[in-house]
Amino acid sequence: MLPSIYILGREIPMYGICAAFGIGLAFFVTWLRTRRLRREGRDVSDVFYLLLYAMIGVLIGAKLLYFIQNLGTLLSDFSLLFTNPGYFFGGFVFYGGLIGGVFGAWFYCWQFRLRLFDYANLIVTAIPIIHGIGRIGCFCAGCCYGKPMDPPLGLLFNASPVAPHDVYLFPVQLLEVFTNLIIFVILMVYTNKKSCPRHGGLALYMCWYAVTRFLIEFLRYDDVERGFIGFLSTSQFISLFILAGGILLFIKGGAIVRFFDRTRPVKKKRESKAF
């Protein structure tokens, strides 16, 4: 694969390039989705500020969960934080990023007295964009690799600094790229329907991704590094809670949305209109 490229004599990790491209594309797609609103003269600046807060939450949450998963190693040799650059510049866990992103979006809405679910359907499509392109970066770096498998399904990741060498591994990263593409298309269609409730897009994404991630985990081969809770990998364990939350949001979405609407602060005088 291609873990990094050289630009002007400097080594640039492909994962970082893909992550930056995914974030840029997510903002661009969101901008396109607000075109109709802008034509109507509506202020959509909050959409992009909210997305920015969510991105910051993604980075913090993804790194924090990575530290938690590697807490045993760090406690046994705390110097790794300073001697191994991978602990800061690599190692992000998606579910930590998802939780952190939702919290970042909620915090922006709380800060400026906006209603989170007025924006949920508009920005939820950004999640599979960033995640899918990020998984291309994982494929290039050779991380998040799959189980040993004979060719043609198995590939060698001999250039990877993290994947086993001289072993044909299933490129599970590309499978996750494909599942993210599918849910992106579904979300684009579903959230554009007038019948889609304010919580519909997020609930659908939570259910879809929780199920697909739970199943994909059976094809992962790096699960020893990421840890187990009982007989389930950490990601499978979290998937069960994400799925339960998505189902609850589908069933009791109206009540949950009203709860969030009622818990807005009352200090700032800004209005929020559903998109």
Task: Note down, in words, how this protein is organized.
The protein has one domain. Strand 1 and strand 2 form a beta hairpin. The chain starts with a strand and ends in a 13-residue tail after the last helix. It is globular, with a radius of gyration of 20 Å. The mean pLDDT is 86. The protein is mainly alpha-helical and 275 residues long. Helix 11 (200-216) runs antiparallel to helix 13 (234-251). The protein has 14 helices and six strands. Strands 1-2 form a two-stranded antiparallel sheet. Strands 3-4 form a two-stranded antiparallel sheet. Strands 5-6 form a two-stranded antiparallel ribbon.
Structural class: mainly alpha
Write out the strand line-up for the largest beta sheet, numbering strands in chain order: 1-2
How many E strands?
6
Can you summarize the main beta sheet? 2 strands, antiparallel
Unreliable sequence segments:
none
Measured by DSSP, the beta-strand proportion falls in 5-15%
How much helical structure, as a percent, in the residues? 55-70%
Helix/strand order, N-terminal first: EEHHHHHHHHHEEHHHEEHH
Name the shape in a single word: globular
**What integer is the average pLDDT?**
86
Counting DSSP H or I runs of 4 or more residues, the number of helices is 14
Round the Cα radius of gyration to an integer and report it.
20 Å
Number of domains: 1
* Termini gap: 42 Å
